[in-house]
Amino acid sequence: MEPVSIILILLVLVLVLFATEWVPVDVTALLLLAALMLTGLLDPDEALAGFGDRTVLTLASLFVLAQMLLRTGVIGWMVQLLTGAPGRRGAQPPASGVSLIRRLLGGVTAVSTVTSNTATTAVFLPVMHALARRTGVPASRVMMPLAFASILGGSVTLIGTSTNLVVSGFLPELGLERLGFFELAWVGVPGAIAGLLYLFFVAPRLLPERDSEMEQEVRAYISDLTIVEGSPLIGQTLAGAALGRDHGLTVVAVRRDGRTFYAPDASFGLELGDTLAVESDSEGLLAAKAGLGLVSRSEEKLSLSGLESEVRLVEAVVMPGNELIGRTLRESRFRERYGLSVLALHRREKTVERLGNLRVRGGDVLLIQGTESRLRSLGDTFAVLADLTEQQRDGSKAPLAAAIFVGALLLSGLGLVPLVTALIAAVALALALRLLSPAEAYRSIEWPVLILVAAMLAFGGAFQSSGAAEMIAGWLAGVLQPLGGLGALAGVYLFTLLLTQPMSNQAAALVMLPLAVGVAGALGYDPRPFAVTVALAASNSYLTPLEPSCMLVYGPGHYRFTDFLRVGGGLSLITFVLTLLIVPLVWPLAGAN
Prior knowledge:
Blueprint: H1 3-20, H2 25-38, H3 44-48, H4 54-71, H5 74-83, H6 97-112, H7 117-135, H8 143-153, H9 162-170, H10 185-201, H11 203-206, E1 221-227, H12 238-241, H13 243-247, E2 250-256, E3 259-262, E4 275-280, H14 282-291, E5 294-295, H15 297-301, E6 311-318, H16 334-338, E7 341-346, E8 365-371, H17 372-376, E9 382-387, H18 398-413, H19 419-432, H20 438-444, H21 447-465, H22 468-480, H23 484-500, H24 505-523, H25 527-539, H26 548-554, H27 561-586
Antiparallel strand pairs: 1-4, 1-5, 1-7, 2-3, 2-4, 6-8, 6-9, 7-8
Helix pairs in contact: 1-2, 2-21, 4-9, 4-19, 4-20, 4-21, 5-6, 6-7, 6-8, 7-8, 7-26, 8-10, 8-26, 9-24, 10-27, 18-19, 21-24, 22-24, 23-24, 23-25, 24-25, 25-27
């Protein structure tokens, strides 16, 4: 059988498997690699070269650095800044309601310009859900805009989405230069501005109103947190601190100099050394510890600082027969016996007792922090429900983490070193400085994405060398030739957008890129505007929930498939029109011929 025939058969099979997901996309990619080698279209070195490609290594590094920013609280700090949460004395009062949600959406778009849009959506998902709950806005009105805002930011920079990196990495195979760091911003910035205006003023009229709950149960914990030197809460009233509205903390009592003030009112002033008895979920408690200058004395007495990358955090339920039952944590000398810190306790009944004075009951859930070896010593009378280690934040290292990330981007942006070199160096520094542990770094990498990209890079090479790309490009050129240059661009954009619906954005881009370049050559146009159009079309998929960012919000927003078509149709039209207006002006169609 001719190589072209084999390639076309494999292409059809891959498209079917991507569309139906009978097997996971990364498994499909591995099957494709095996088929390329078994049929002799590529030798093993050619087929596996993609795993060492700079695009794959760049993606892996970005996944790790995104986790570093999350782990050190940089993302949390940005959330506080965007939502107007108190960060220092004299801060402006926080925004509220719709304006607060709009501000956060703008921030999501900004963050997504330098991190994966999928990762950005995942980070901001619980934040947006909590914000919707506190402002009384149905989650269905904010979850889809969250996903769309993250996608809008992806077209501003080279690293805004993995699709841009994939396109840039494949361009040298087609005889073209890689994309510049801000090259797509000519379309990306106007698209982000127009898209946000659409999300602010048009989308709310189209979005459904449905009640929604997060899939995971949210447990309300009681904890004692003390205000220490440097806390932005010192000198503020409870109303000014907005602990409930902006941080999800319910203050049930304040202890000061041996006195306890139960259910303090909004005018109650906070002072250095106050211990707040607060109720919140685990994420709210950890965020408060990281960003508000609040500490758990139990944690301090264990001297856990400096061991952050080794310390784990778990939810553990007290089982029947546990010797803690009927005793307080202080009476049982829990900290001295186990070498662990209890940060908080969850119980269905509300209580204002000091955490150390609460008598433990069977079924109580404890939020326990300590080293892995110590946690293993808990025994069978504790049942670990969940590992929340990655929710921990170490705000003291946020400036260092931000400096490493920004430094890497500057080194690359100024052309001093290649992007992959700067990012790998940043990852090495993050690990050496213990901003996150090696195990956490490996867990943060989305391996299915890397396998998919590496396999499709190999397939793209075979697609070119077999002559299949040239043949299909000739057919497409015949169809698009009567439409002229702008019509050809429109056809490439729409065909790419169509392919992104049943298959991943990266796979659609890699399938279309050689075809688009071939069409440009057949029609006598410069191939670069066609390559840029493929990147923009593949990165802006709003019509279905099959895009990863949209899949993350599909359940929490209680959406239907048609909701995305109704709301995303307008955004798709905006990006389509802007692409056709701007691309020919910035990248002239008749540049190379």
